[in-house]
Amino acid sequence: MEGFMKDSQGRLVPVDMVKPVDKARDDLVQSIVSESQTLAGMLQEFRGRTMSNIRAFIDLSAEQYHVEFGGAKGNVTLTSFDGEYRVLVAVDERISFDERLQIAKSLIDDCLKEWTRGARSELKVIVDDAFAVDKAGKVNTSRILSLRKLDIAAPRWLKAMEAISDSITVIQSKEYIRIYRRNAQGEYDKINLDIAS
To answer: pTM for the complete prediction?
Structure first.
């Protein structure tokens, strides 16, 4: 409404009652937000166009070998002919575990009872830590998956590891584009498009 400014509680305050420093701050913030929204739109458009171009190139490259791709392409690295630039598409999958994770925990607990009979109770803490939940009630995925790397051949343990593998569900898959330029040392530095960085 002309002649008024809305405050943080939604009230209309006459412009002549607003301090000059508050007006100047508001102008600065509004200007930054307006420009950032324009840039965000440009980045979103760039990302969409870039992903489309990369998919089209992968399909073109596959045609050379009479191969047809379908669905997601996965991780891929494209390098300029001179090796100066590199474009990486990385696929990041977020996973969760279903009820079979609790079955795995029960099997592991049985193993621990058998293996730690007469041993120190601190050993059980290591596995319990892997299954600990955070404040949101979620388990730490990497801790759970790290149990599968242990070289333990006990049948009950192997059954628990199978239950962990079977309990994994991909809940979200996201593609990231990363662009790199080679520096004087021959290593690749990321061209940062993240304003926070």
So the answer is: 0.61
